[in-house]
Write a structure and sequence with these properties.
Order of helices and strands of chain A: EHEEEHE
Radius of gyration of chain B: 31 Å
CATH superfamily of chain A: Ferrous iron transport protein A (FeoA)
CATH architecture of chain A: Roll
Helix content of chain B: 55-70%
CATH topology of chain A: SH3 type barrels
Number of strands of chain B: 12
Number of strands of chain A: 5
Distance between the termini of chain A: 9 Å
Number of helices of chain A: 2
Low-confidence stretches of chain B: none
Number of domains of chain A: 1
Strand content of chain B: 5-15%
Mean pLDDT of chain A: 92
Largest sheet of chain B: 7 strands, mixed
Number of helices of chain B: 35
Shape of chain A: globular
Strand order of the largest sheet of chain A: 4-3-2-1-5
Oligomer: heterodimer
Largest sheet of chain A: 5 strands, antiparallel
Strand order of the largest sheet of chain B: 2-3-4-1-5-6-8
Structural class of chain B: alpha/beta
Low-confidence stretches of chain A: none
Shape of chain B: elongated
Radius of gyration of chain A: 11 Å
Helix content of chain A: 10-25%
Structural class of chain A: alpha+beta
């Protein structure tokens, strides 16, 4: 299973499924990361975590641990 | 009857600018009852009967964060007459997500499409009319920063409120989910307000705990609803919350595909992206951040010519409160024939003016600090700070957003505590408020300087250890507190928007700065005046050889101040006979003497440090000032010397001008050193650095917690922690340094260290956040 955590900087992927549950999953979806959306991995923070993504036209910061819940292709 | 209009929208959508534009100065800022969320409402300019209720910036109406719950509760319970939904035109897709949810509330609504100036600059095109048709609500173009369109927005909103019109809104939920929701609607019809039937049905479908709690349906109905949900989930192979969210965004994508055309090609960098290439760069990110923070402190609190803050504060202290105000009152009191030795004169000049002046003195510095921080926040840089620092804070269960309050607190704890407002999770917010003031603030520096200079030969290690202890206390407290039920829970998701940089709005920044500064001044005006008066009274009055009165005056009576009396006083107050001063007979000294034993286990159980610590509650710098008075500064004071020529200074009457006690109290160091062993002095410093902060900071904590229990808990926690650490410092440190032998104290100290270690490593309370069925959600809510 490929997740957003494994995607290197500069690549664009499509979201296949969201794992996890409760507030974390809801938050990720509320911010626009839903099934079928395209996500661009912009960069990693200076300390390696979190990562900055471009989603639906804006910049979003997501922790690696949460990115691991987002299955992509 | 007043018309109530709610203002709702995403964070960073320009809501605050619009609110300020609509209400001007007729605003009221407070807190929503019982929670740590700021509440703003105001009257619409030009209309006396229209109230604008600003709701917190939210991305959704989920039941998970405080801001969302507060907004939902308001909308459902207060039923405003209309909603103005502000939508960021450069970010329409995500903004419309909230819009679809607001529409389900069946409240008349107007969409204010903001930042149209940026939209045009980017070359984007939005077909407002088509968007309006598809959404079934009026869409008005707005450019809040430029001040264009806000009047039209408010007029349309009022019109919508008056006609109670609801356009034809798109039905988001189609297919199996739509069917399930409609069946739920039938099941609850009659049991809920008809207006919110659709809203409640959808929330129940999502197993929304707050909605379930509010509706209190019987178990039978809940079971039927649950089975409807389960069927749908199995069919669509996803949980109900995700199903709804996906359907919403699918609908939105459909709408924007037809109505929004982006000017930039996909992958092309915006101006913000280009700036961030440097600012959050892997290599440059941290150094740039360090430089920015350094500049802020240099300007606000440093000692250079560019340090506007320090210069303004010095001016306030030395000139305004050093000369003008006392001089003015001297004149007034003189005209009223109030003599210098009288109670009234003392009360006003030495009690009120001195006390209030000491605190108001650093208002200029704080205003400059507030101003610079407001600018950074408005520009959008603060989210970058949280982004960079998150990794570290995640280790102790917090997030990068907790870093900013701690950082700001190194200048002053008051804005530091206020900065915790951006933390979404209430538990984390409370925890941050409780620990932020462990950081040594500007006012605590003189204490460090005093101890370092008097006892440790000015060693810079002392100052370093002070910061180390402060940061350590915050970190350890974070870990310890997180294990308690009150703070435990799943780590809050750190999914944070990095908004586009934009030029700060001058009026917005000034308004934010003034609001914070003013609340500080108000606090100074109330609590600090009273405490200054109390302390002045206690230190000026006392019983000398049976006679009660102003001790300074009484001590001039040779009949009262007999040798036996002086001996007895010296003995009681534990001072050498030759050093007895009027203050030793004061009420303050007696009170201090009575309370002092509390601090004996910490090594400084005499009345002087006790009194100094208590005066630290007014302002932490007072600790040094009080020491100056108590260690009889007058006796060691030297005649002041002109800084340039080195000549002795005389005033107009030919009297020698005495030097003032310097900030760190250099002059009394020798006397202080006599009284304390190194470890006792260190314990004193530790206690004062970590215990309850000054009244102004306590006031800020009270305002943010918005709950008496929590405020006391915060103060209590800090003081207990300070006591424990000071205890360990004196007892265990004392043994290590050979100051005293191994005994009960050191044993207790080691036990306490053991307790702290246990608190750090034990397994904490684990909250259960997994998805449950409706009936168990209902059971939990009851």
């Amino acid at each position: 299973m490929k997740t957003l955590k494994d995607i290197p900087v500069g690549e664009t992927v499509k979201v296949v499924k969201l794992h996890g549950e409760g507030p974390v999953k809801r938050r990720i979806m509320d911010m626009g990361i839903t099934k079928g959306v395209e996500v661009y991995v912009r960069k990693l923070a200076p300390l390696g975590d979190p990562m900055e993504l471009n989603v639906r036209g804006y910049e979003l910061s997501v922790r690696n641990a949460d990115a691991a819940l987002i299955e992509v292709e | 009857m007043d018309i109530k209009i709610a203002l709702a929208g995403n964070p960073n959508s320009g809501k605050t600018t619009l609110f300020n534009d609509l209400t001007g100065s007729r605003q009221y800022v407070g807190n929503w009852p019982g929670v740590t969320v700021e509440k703003k409402e105001g009257r619409l300019k030009g209309h006396d009967d229209v109230i604008i209720q600003d709701l917190p910036g939210i991305y959704s109406l989920s039941p998970y964060t405080l801001e969302e719950v507060v907004s939902r509760t308001y909308l459902v319970n207060e039923k405003p007459d209309a909603i103005i939904n502000i939508v960021d035109g450069t970010n329409i897709e995500r903004n419309l997500y909230l819009t679809t949810q607001l529409m389900e509330l069946n409240i008349p609504m107007v969409v204010a499409l903001n930042m149209m100036d940026l939209v045009r600059k980017n070359g984007d095109k939005v077909d407002t009319k088509a968007l309006s048709e598809k959404l079934g609500v009026e869409v008005v173009e707005l450019s809040a920063l430029k001040g264009e369109g806000s009047k039209e927005v408010s007029e349309k909103a009022i019109a919508a409120a008056r006609t109670s019109s609801l356009g034809k809104r798109p039905s988001i939920l189609s297919g199996e989910a739509g069917d399930a929701v409609r069946q739920i609607e039938e099941l609850i019809r009659g049991k809920v307000d008809e207006k919110f039937l659709a809203w409640n049905a959808i929330k129940l479908f999502e197993r929304d705990a707050k909605a379930v709690e509010a509706l209190s349906l019987d178990d039978g109905t809940l079971a039927k609803i649950e089975s409807l949900i389960k069927t749908c989930e199995t069919e669509l192979d996803d949980d109900s919350e995700s199903i709804v969210t996906n359907l919403r965004y699918n609908e939105i994508t459909g709408i924007t595909a037809d109505t929004v055309k982006k000017g930039r090609a996909k992958g092309e960098l915006s101006v913000s992206d280009k700036i961030d290439r440097i600012v959050t760069n892997r290599i440059l990110g941290l150094p740039i951040f360090a430089v920015v923070m350094f500049l802020i402190y240099a300007i606000a609190m440093g000692g250079w010519s560019v340090s506007v803050g320090t210069r303004a504060t010095d001016f306030t202290n030395d000139v305004i409160f050093g000369e003008w105000v006392p001089g003015l009152f001297d004149g007034i009191l003189g005209a009223l024939n109030v003599g210098e030795g009288t109670v009234l004169y003392g009360l006003i000049q030495n009690g009120i003016i001195a006390g209030v002046g000491a605190v108001l003195g650093f208002v200029p510095q704080m205003l400059v600090l507030f101003l610079l921080l407001s600018i950074l926040e408005d520009i959008g840089y603060m989210s970058r700070v949280a982004f960079v620092m998150d990794r570290i804070f995640r280790q102790f269960g917090l997030s990068g957003k907790s870093f900013i309050p701690c950082l700001v607190a190194t200048g002053c704890g008051v804005p530091g505590v206020m900065a915790s407002r951006t933390i979404e999770n209430e538990r984390d917010r409370r925890m941050t408020v409780m620990t932020t003031t462990f950081m040594p603030c500007g006012a605590k520096l003189p204490i460090i300087g005093l101890i370092a200079g008097a006892i440790f030969d000015g060693s810079p290690l002392v100052a370093a250890s002070a910061y180390f202890i402060g940061i350590g206390s915050i970190v350890l407290s974070g870990i310890i507190l997180k294990k308690f039920k009150a703070f435990a829970g799943q780590p809050a998701p750190f999914v944070m928007e990095l908004p586009a940089y934009h030029i700060p709005s001058v009026s917005g920044v000034l308004r934010a700065t003034w609001e914070r500064g003013w609340s500080f001044i108000k606090r100074a005006g109330s609590v600090i005046v009273i405490s200054s008066i109390v302390i002045w009274f206690l230190s000026s009055f006392g019983t000398v050889n049976g006679q009660f009165g102003m001790v300074d005056n009484l001590f001039e009576d040779e009949n009262l101040v007999t040798e036996e009396y002086v001996a007895e006083l010296a003995d009681r107050m534990n001072v050498p006979k030759d050093d007895v001063t009027p203050m030793d007979a004061s009420l303050l000294a007696s009170v201090g003497n009575t309370v002092a034993p509390v601090f004996s286990p910490l090594g400084f159980g005499s009345w002087k440090p006790t009194v100094a610590t208590v005066t630290g509650l007014v302002a932490k710098e007072q600790v040094v000032g009080t020491f100056g008075v108590l260690y009889n500064y007058d006796a060691v004071a030297e005649q002041a010397v002109d800084e340039e020529t080195g000549e002795l200074l005389f005033d107009e009457a030919g009297e020698p001008v005495m030097a003032e006690l310097s900030e760190e109290g250099d002059e009394i160091w020798d006397r202080v050193a006599e009284d304390y062993t190194p470890m006792a002095a260190l314990a004193f410093m530790v206690f004062n650095l970590l215990c309850a902060p000054c009244f102004a900071a306590i006031g800020a904590i009270k305002r943010e917690m918005n709950n008496a229990k929590w405020t006391w808990a915060a103060i209590g926690y800090m003081t207990v922690w300070a006591y424990v650490l000071a205890f360990i410092t004196y007892n265990v440190g004392g043994v290590i340094k050979g100051e005293h032998g191994f005994g009960l104290g050191p044993i207790m100290g080691i036990v306490l260290i053991g307790v702290i270690i246990w608190l750090l490593v034990r397994k904490g309370y684990k909250a259960d956040d997994s998805v449950q069925s409706l009936t168990s959600v209902n059971a939990n809510a009851a």
